[in-house]
Amino acid sequence: MNGVQITVLDQRAMTWLLAGLGLTILPHSLYLPIWISALALAIGVWRWLAAQRNWPLPHNKIKLLLTLALVVAIFANYGTLVGRDSGTALLVMMMGLKLVELRQRRDVMVLMFLAYFLLITHFIFSQTIPMATYVMCCAWLLLSLHMHLTSMELRPVRHSLRTAGGLMLLGLPLMLALFVLFPRIEGPIWGLPKDAYAGMTGLGDSMSPGAISSLSQSDEVAFRVKFDDQVPSTDKRYWRGPVLWMTDGRNWDIGPELRPAAWQSPISAAHESALSYTVTLEPHNQKWLFALDLPATSSEHGQISSDLQLIAPKKVRKRLKYHMTSYLDYNTGQLTDFERRLGLFLPKNRNPRTVALGRSLQIQSRSDAEVIQKALTMFRQQPFVYSLRPPLLDSNEPSDQFLFETRTGFCEHFASSFTMLMRAAGIPARVVTGYQGAELNPVDDYYIVRQRDAHAWSEVWLPGQGWVRIDPTAAVAPERIERSIDTSLLSAGAVQFSVPHSDLLSKAWQQVNLNLDAINNRWNQLVLGYGPNQQREFLQNLGLDIKDWRKLAWVFLVLVGGLFVIITAFVLIPRHRQVDPVLKNYQRFCRKLAKRGLLRAENESASAFAQRVKTNRPDLSEKIDRITQLYCHLRYAGSPNQKQLLHFRKQVSEFKP
Amino acid sequence: MAVLFQRWLDTLPAGLRPRGVRYFAASAKQSAVLTNKRIFVLPTKQGWVFFVLLVLMLLGAMNYSNSMAFVLTFWLGSVSLVSLLYTYRNLVKLEIKLNGSEPCFAGGHAIFNLLLNNKQTRQRFDIGIQNAAGITSTSSVNSEDHAQISLAVPTSQRGRLQLGRVTLSSCYPLGLFRAWAYVDIEAETLVYPRPADNAPLPQTGQGSGERMETTEEGSDDFHGFRQYHAGDSPRHIYWKALAREQGLVTKQFQRHQSPEMWFDWADTRGTDIETRLSQLCRWLLDGDSQQQRFGLRLPGVVIAPAQGKEHLDQCLAQLALFGVGE
């Protein structure tokens, strides 16, 4: 129907095709099991050799067997065929199989369409600037190949690359308009595969020894914060996350649902300590949001629960931006009986030495404050070590083992055993996890909180003061609170803190990193974060109401249609060949003579015309000769240079018949 | 799709066809310029598949709320829209005219040469021309240049052959859209009868086959001398005479004139008109290849004996049109 009749791909085209397809699936090798990548590569190389040496292609039976074997293998590897990862693996394998039976142009088109679809799957895994650039370059290459392989005549690949590039450039404004104006809806439309959000890191809803120290090795950004005006001092940068009440002596868990919705927090706070800021949270596939200790406002994005957590209505699976107000000085007021019971709960017959120590502290002290003080002093004075790689707590009494034997631990060890001590001493206590710290990016003046800033601390309830934050880690390693952990020095196991570098190179390096993060932040906010809410805001700024869909449809049609009309005009208006400057100047010379009645006939050569003019106007013969000679020389003896051209132009300009 | 649309249009009575769906006309003298109103553009099968793919990608982007997936989908969509313009531009304002045709024998291919003239500075790619029977030929045309496309139409019957309506089309650049226009080309050529496989020349000597000798200045046998005239070939000058100071003398030669033959309808055997015409056709060809002078006698037609390509064509044309109404 399209008259596509060529059935054999020439070897050069095959090489190009294989290279394009290879580049298209290359980033998937980061996520795919190694055997799939290796197999895809092997098929590609085999197909290339087969094209070079005219090897026969395999039989249908072999292909069928191969297909079945691959489907079974993928199912065995993933346990499903419909997930994100297994789906991608299946697509890659389909492409490989299609390559095996690649004979006709039709097969080539199937391959091209598979490749376009594979391109889009990259973005489920990563949407960073480098990845986006890479994928768009691949799209360019694929379009060029598409053009090259549908053409009926053999043209250089260069031509296809140029034309496809032109198509993309012309399509760019239309794409931008569609991106901004195409109505966005809140996804997902239907269920997503279970593994769609695999690989998101963040704080979980439970804490076991080692949970936070593993997070601390990641430089990934947890969230970014822009303060409205005031910035809290470094020792106040506690970002509150999940509050853990329940313990079995080793692990900590969140409590029962503590009335998240209609609950009114009895916080009384000094209003001058209120701080406003905007958080852009990276998706972590959990329900909690992070806010400075203590969050004060509920919003559509998150409700404050009775244990003062900020809870989102849904799991955070997209980058989320929310505005918050927090109080740094607060009093949470009275404790309910239920909360007191929860806050004093200890599992029976676990960690007996810890419990005993707590009891003895309670007996020796006159007030709760003194108990706390004594416990912190113990951490400070006894040889406790703050370490990223503490020895494994393998006994049944992990807290005892830590407090009395190993004495080496990360923040979760300190928070966990401190909280148990407090409970044993009759003080309601709980563990709070979250992040501590924030690094300033001076480029765009915002703060970055990374996974390595993950932290755990304790909260105790004191009469008259309410819940009070106690950070036992600060007693052992006060520098942890001042500076963040230097992940580059983690290999030794001992915790190193990043000190401000003094030498020029590391300063420059730091500057580059901050600049990159600022660019990433903008990319995240403007491009990746553009969703239904941002679209509504954008349209409202333009004076359009999102509910007035009739008007919106008109605006959409007029803008996109108008843009298309402009592009159409640009494409269809014929381009005129640039007029030869030599000819243009000679024509000027002829016009000057024509005004004096000396008209050059259409078929008259320049020299014949000059002869005729000279007989009429002998007074001009010298100038006419010069101009005619120059003209003949410039026009017919190779390409003229700029200097000669200027000279010629001057001669014509000065010519006055 | 496009083919279906074309068929549907063709079934409509001329008066009901949408305005604009009238066809361009071109001939050897008159070029047809493809103007915008009569160029159609529709997606190809491949194009429809591509759009389904785009819809799938869009659904995926919405489901995952994935910004870059939106970008890629919209970009590919925009590219396909711009490619529609390229497809259309590839055909618009192209000029087509007939550049002669070549007759053939029945069973062979009659050639129609069409000239595509591109007056614009943009090159045109992959312009296909297809006649009603589906014979296709493709060519590109350089900027401000012309290109000849030949359609080789297979024939089975002698007589007149008209090219009729052709479809100019192009799927450039991505094959997602096809632009096409219909042009009625006023082109006619002759299909000669198929020459019989084996038909010995008729016996000559019925009074007209005798050898006639003329003293034309051929170059076969030496005949005598005569005085030199300006323009005589130097090879024919009798140089020995010049050496003997007898002046310039030219040698004269005499050619044996071939016998004159008549190929007569009455001499052919067989009951079928076509069989007899086939025999005559074979004789004409053999007579021509043996450089004979021959004449043709058909019922109602007599062509005097002569020689040469033109004469042969004239005779063959009579065979092609024998019994064929105007």
The appropriate CATH architecture of the largest domain in chain B is: Sandwich
Question: Stretches of chain B where pLDDT falls below 50 for ≥5 residues?
Answer: 205-218
Rg of chain A, alpha carbons: 37 Å
**Span between N and C termini of chain A?**
66 Å
| Helix proportion range of chain B | 25-40%
- In angstroms, what separates the terminal alpha carbons of chain B? 38 Å
The number of E-state strands of chain B comes to: 16
Outline of chain B: elongated
How many domains make up the 3D coordinates of chain A?
3
Q: Under CATH, the topology of the largest domain in chain B is which?
A: Immunoglobulin-like
Helix content of chain A: 40-55%
pLDDT averaged over residues of chain A: 83
Q: Helix/strand/pairing class of chain A, anyone?
A: alpha+beta
Give the topology string of chain B: H per helix, E per strand. Answer: HEEEHHEEEEEEEEEHEEHEEH
What is the CATH class of the largest domain in chain B?
Mainly Beta
Oligomer: heterodimer
